[in-house]
Amino acid sequence: EIAAGARSAAEAHVLAQLRRSRLPDFELNVPVVDVNGKTLFVLDVLWRRYRAVLEIEGREYHFGAAEWQSTLRRHNALTAAKLALLHYPPSALMGRDNAWLGEIERWLRTRADELGVAYTSGRPDRPLSLSEPQPWLIHSASPRLTAS
User: Fold this and answer.
1) Can you tell me the distance from the alpha carbon of 128 to that of 102, in angstroms, rounded to the nearest whole number?
2) What is the number of other CB atoms lying within 10 angstroms of the CB of residue 73?
3) Beta bridge partners of 84
4) pTM value?
5) Which residues share a beta bridge with 31?
6) What is the DSSP letter of 64?
7) Tens digit of each residue's pLDDT (9 = 90 or more) over 54-87
8) Per-residue burial over 20-36, b = 16 or more CB atoms within 10 Å of its CB, e = otherwise
9) DSSP 76-140
């Protein structure tokens, strides 16, 4: 999982669980770029077809007001770019019951319905893709979209 781009123990665990699930195929650590090609953010997990993002948000990155405000700006920018986001702390994803997988499946099915696209289950134990993910382009060059 580290070779596939997991940046923390929580991400490695999530990646392993996603690979073993029947959730649709996903991309890991997808850069979000502006019209000039500047990387603004990196998405933890992206289901591009459903315009859906899973963010693993550790509390250690949100202690101060500046970090919290940065996360809010990032969330608002991604929502404005027509992405839907779910945020989970690592502690909610590291448990043994994996109830979060069912929550995400229901959410992705709802996203598919909203977007009018077919929901396609993935296959368990899918191979890891080590290719670079294609960036997600934000068309706005608003100065409020600052990297976090």
Assistant:
1) 22
2) 16
3) 52
4) 0.83
5) 42
6) S
7) 998 765 555 677 877 888 888 999 999 999 999 9
8) ebebbebbbbbbbbbee
9) HHHHHTT-EEEEE-HHHHSSSS-HHHHHHHHHHHHHHHHHT-------TTPPPP-SPPPPEEP--
